[in-house]
Amino acid sequence: MTTTLDRLRNGQTATVTALDVDGAERRRLMDLGVLPGTPIRVDRVSPLGDPTAYLVRGSVIALRRHQARGIHITVGQG
Amino acid sequence: MPHTELPTPSVNPAPPTDPVCGTCALNHASQLLSLGVDVSGHDHVVALAGNPNTGKSTVFNALTGLRQHVGNWPGKTVIGAEGGFGYRDRRYKLVDLPGTYSLLSTSEDEDVARDFLVFGRPDVTVVVVDATRLQRNLNLVLQILQITDRVVLALNLVDEARRHGLSVDERHLARELGVPVVPMAARSRQGVPDLLETVERVALGTIATRARPVHHGDVRTERAVSELAHRIQREYPELTNTRWIALRLLEGDPGIERAVTDGTLGRLAAPAASTESFTDRSGKTHS
């Protein structure tokens, strides 16, 4: 199933398929290892769901909902 | 048969007794002279770079004997802290750069680190990486290798990696990257002697480092980079990292554009403008 990262639920794992983000923010995400093919998991969710902490390549990064929305993922066998 | 003596291993003058390794001739650490903040009359400039939380400042303190600023918060090391150390008969100035994941995004930390590597032109750059998060750390390593190949990779936290059941094939890594790799556990001073020895050899050029250039899959990008790099090279034949500068210009990097227009790049290209001083963006002169 393809969706965007903000739809991923707590504890679920997905694979990044594309980054629909531009400029410095795109660069930043790529520097942190968020690239197509990267497994990503919801690690913790703040009380209001924004920001959410994700586990990427052994590190935890926090993203705002609007940032997560720009990250395309596939969930399940993909 | 003539009397032949068994070959005696070359015996160096016994170094002063060290509580840890005693008088072992291989104890390079006993040759370390921590000079604290005294950076006068240095022979070589060594930069310390790496991601945040990899132990850069721990390495810095282990070498300089200083006890500065080990702590975990963003921007802790804003401008590179400086310290000195002596090893064998040479003096080194060590510059601790801010921890960054990249040299390409836009934050003050990254600009400081990037400007020092490009314009400060250290003789050796030690990149401290976290062995438990090697994959993410290698991004910065590869970026630095595009700027300079006089790099020593300090593979830190190998003790912690081992506890997680991870072991890193450092020889293979060194071969892939084209630069020496020193496994370390800086908190317990493991690997410090090897690091000193390797830094000295890279500074003196007795270890040849050869970074592998990153090529871009896209043919048009590749062509644009080579063409621009070629022109920069023609203008400034002394520059070594023209490909990197070309890429930054194509990306519209304001810091590099400024360096080209205000003549900083030209000064760099002149051999006399070595590492003695550089001026960062805020106008402070580091010497």
Characterization of this structure:
Chain B: It holds the Pfam family FeoB_N. The complex is a heterodimer of chains A (78) and B (287). Chain A is of the alpha+beta class. Chain A has one domain: Ferrous iron transport protein A (FeoA) (SH3 type barrels). Chain A contains two helices and six strands. Chain A has helices spanning 23-31, 65-69; strands at residues 2-4, 13-19, 39-45, 52-56, 59-63, 71-75. Chain A has a six-stranded antiparallel beta sheet with strand order 1-6-2-3-4-5. In chain A, a hairpin with a 2-residue loop joins strand 4 and strand 5 (59-63). Chain B is of the alpha/beta class and 287 residues long. Chain B has two domains: 28-204, 3-Layer(aba) Sandwich (Rossmann fold), CATH 3.40.50; 219-273, no CATH class. Chain B contains ten helices and nine strands. In chain B, the strands form two sheets. Chain B has a seven-stranded mixed beta sheet with strand order 1-3-4-2-5-6-7, with helices on both faces. A two-stranded antiparallel sheet of chain B has the order 8-9. In chain B, helix 7 (219-235) crosses helix 8. Chain A binds chain B through residues 24, 27-28, 31-33, 56-59, and chain B through 101-102, 104-106, 132-133, 135-136, 139.
Order of helices and strands of chain B: EEHEEHEHEHHEHHHHHEE
Percentage of β-strand residues of chain A: 35-45%
Radius of gyration of chain B: 20 Å
* Helical residues, percent of chain B: 25-40%
Short synopsis of the structure:
Chain A is α+β, with helices and mostly antiparallel strands and 78 residues long. Chain A has helices spanning 23-31, 65-69; strands at residues 2-4, 13-19, 39-45, 52-56, 59-63, 71-75.
